[in-house]
Design goal:
Elements (H helix, E strand, L loop, with lengths): L3 E3 L2 H12 L4 E4 L4 E4 L5 H11 L9 E2 L3 H7 L4 H10 L4 E6 L16 E5 L4 H10 L3 E2 L14 H8 L5 E4 L10 E4 L5 E5 L5 H8 L3 E3 L36 E3 L10 E3 L6 H16 L2
Parallel strand pairs: 1-8, 2-8, 4-6, 5-9, 10-11, 12-13
Antiparallel strand pairs: 2-3, 4-7, 5-6, 9-10
Helix pairs in contact: 1-5
Length: about 290
């Protein structure tokens, strides 16, 4: 696996060099592993969409490392500032009105006049962003529709050597995708549930967040398609008595006798369950 390198000064510098030469790099974020490219390079964006088999109408999340970088690509207001002061850096993506900017091509955001953006908490990602000096596009590092990657080995399973570099920084901290809220219209809309619960955001901003209606034709954020982050094996929810031939994913103190089975958290801890979810789904899917 010669395209996987442990996180180090060398691998970070190599990642920046690769991004500057239209190559793709996988980096750990605090949520899942991302597949990073230069959103100002048509060659990088095309390569990313092609290897992910990603629909061209599905815009990429843009990652930034400073408020100045954010202001160069988005229009922000007092509400935006209140949200980012409380939740950034961290697992919250916000959709904002987009500024025309040579650092973000139309192709990277599906030609929309909005942009989904976040500041990651991941140290390795922030180091790469700061050295790169401009925004980086990074959807999750998995084939479109399949389970997100929370380890470098997951990324390699999905892409083998199609990606130029995978930096191994260990397992992602949260194991779930970032929450996405849309601030581009009068109503604040949840576009994708994730690590941060909307009730927490509502408490901070003292405003209601409305549930999204799925928009699969012209989505303005990831997570809008009816099938995503899904294993190849069909899933049945809330099964108490699995049948022969089933793989069982449990949660809590119950003693699961079924084989094969995995338990997301024997203690019933939701954070531990989130950390394990995508990894365990991948393990069971292989069976």
């Amino acid at each position: 696996m010669s395209n996987i390198l442990k996180e180090s000064v060398y691998s970070i510098n190599k990642a920046v060099k690769f991004l500057k030469t239209n190559k793709l790099v996988s980096l750990k974020t605090e949520t899942v592993y991302g597949l990073a490219c230069d959103p100002s390079s048509i060659h990088s964006i095309k390569k990313l969409y092609n290897i992910k088999n990603r629909p061209l109408v599905n815009p990429l999340i843009i990652h930034i490392s400073s408020i100045n970088m954010l202001k160069s690509i988005c229009k922000i207001n007092g509400l935006t500032e209140k949200i980012i002061n409380h939740f950034w850096p961290g697992p919250l993506t916000i959709i904002l009105p987009r500024k025309n900017n040579k650092n973000i091509l139309d192709f990277a955001v599906s030609g929309l006049n909005t942009i989904a953006v976040r500041m990651p908490r991941s140290k390795v990602f922030l180091k790469v962003l700061n050295k790169f000096g401009k925004p980086i596009a990074a959807p999750s590092a998995n084939k479109s529709g399949y389970i997100s990657s929370t380890k470098a080995s997951h990324v390699f399973e999905s892409f083998k050597k199609e990606i130029d570099l995978i930096i191994d920084s260990g397992q992602s901290d949260f194991g779930l995708e970032s929450t996405i809220i849309d601030l581009s219209s009068d109503k604040i809309i949840l576009r994708r549930p994730g690590v941060i619960d909307t009730e927490v955001i509502e408490t901070v901003i003292e405003k209601k967040i409305y549930e999204s209606v799925k928009n699969t034709k012209n989505p303005n954020s990831p997570g809008q398609f009816f099938k995503h982050y899904s294993p190849r094996t069909p899933i049945k929810l809330n099964v108490k008595f699995p049948k022969n031939g089933d793989a069982f994913l449990g949660f809590g103190k119950n003693n699961f006798q079924h084989e094969p089975s995995l338990n997301l958290s024997k203690k019933g801890d939701l954070n531990e369950a989130a950390f394990n979810l995508f990894n365990f789904l991948r393990k069971l899917d292989k069976l």
